[in-house]
Design a protein that fits this description.
Blueprint lengths: L2 H27 L8 E9 L6 E9 L2
Antiparallel strand pairs: 1-2
């Protein structure tokens, strides 16, 4: 793959990671009773123009 592709991919994934973490942290701060609880999380990635749907699931423990 080209350098332009790699750079744009890294930039997109960094934006996804940073903004997702901020959203989760905000939700945890603004919701009472999250400490010690475990939350199921799911991210669904789709790309317009490509036949791709990628699902990532996991758990997040409140702290």
């Amino acid at each position: 793959m080209s350098d332009d592709f790699n750079m744009s991919m890294r930039k997109f994934l960094k934006q996804v990671g940073v903004t997702s973490q901020q959203a989760i942290e905000d939700a945890m701060r603004n919701t009472e009773g999250t400490e010690g609880k475990t939350f199921e999380a799911k991210v669904v990635l789709t790309v317009d123009g490509l036949d791709v749907e990628h699902v990532v699931t996991g758990t997040i423990k409140g702290g």
